[in-house]
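Blackboard transcription, Thursday session:
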Amino acid sequence: MIGYAPGRSVVHRAHPYTPLVIASGLLLVAFAVRSPLAVWTVVAAALLFAAVAGVLGPVLRPAALLALPTWALLTVLHGLLGGPPHVAVGPLAFSVQGGERALVFGGRLAAILLAFLTALATVSPARLVEAMTVRGVRFGRIYLLVSTLTVVPRLRDRARRIIDAQQCRGLRLGGSPLARVRALGPLVVPLILSALAEVDEQALALDVRGASVDGARTPLETPEDHAADRAVRWGVLVLVVAAYAAKFLGRAP
Amino acid sequence: MTLRDLVVVRLGVAVNLVIGQVAAALLLPVYLDTIGTVLVAALVGWRAAIVAGLTSQVLNAVLSGNFTWLPFGLVQVVIALYAALAARLGAFRRLATAVPAGLLLGAVAASTSAPISYFLFGGVTAGGVTAVTTVLRALGAPLAVAVAAASYTTDLLDKTLVFALVAVVLRSLPRQMAARFPMLAR
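(Written on the board underneath:)
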């Protein structure tokens, strides 16, 4: 499952910015470190983050589904097709350096997936909107991030209906590559034109709801930003700065 | 950005996220996931197009769970800037100019995405491109060359189709609707 999973863990109750900062910090540190051991330590930290949030189970499955194909390709590209020296693993010759590189890249991927899927599972979209409103984030940015998610299923449905309708009118989706490229026009053009036709109506609807009014907005339920939240966020920032300072001084683990 | 621009940006983001469904229905080896960014660049301008591109990248990661796509947001920024410039130079007025401009964008986009793919992810990213990389590597090409060649192969076709489709969409706009986008008159 990908998405918000309601819960009562300390991460769920934290300010919505805190899990997002932790996830971003893990991503940045994963790219700052170089050795397989250091990268997989970051993976362990991401696993701990998911465990503390109580979403290890729901997060592990999609993370594994997303990571496994990439790990397989990394093993082939860097391990089997990598340069010398090689070690024999059964009937296969496995590149030592390539294998290390695959471990580093695969670890970074795992850390990013685990960290952000955990943030996604613990940050309630409604609380995030409230937190952004309190921080004075402009309406446009909040609208783009949240409202687009509601439009996507509608547009997907419309795309499906257009595909069906054009097929009823005799459009063939198969055939040669050129025929398939030609079929793009009758499918894409009506989809975009129909969406563009609604622009003025939607802008008017937003306007009458006061979206164009500047000034502070009052959130219904302000998420609390405790001292512990702020301490965690500052701690992550210090960790990231230290990791990149070490990287640029050539002392990254 | 006006409210109307904001609605167009949202439309561009939604198109970026949904259009892959059409490409998949036709079994075409392209993503077309920048068509909304290019459309917004032509209708509203570069700032709105950058917002559309970056928002698409973030939401794509959120909806798919694959957050490794986030660094490729840089490619969306490059595409937004290039598409706005192309629109200003009138590249979308005819297919004969849109196609070569799209081809050039393919080269620019590949030159931006290949280093991200190579340095950050060891050349392993989205399925189709990585399959080409693996085949080229198996044929003996160095990894950097294989990653670059795979990016160019897919991006040249993808961005040419994107520019051609946007040109067709803009030409198909009813006059009344087109008149509401001042950028089109330039």
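Lecturer's comment: Chain B touches chain A through 59 residues (CB under 8 Å).
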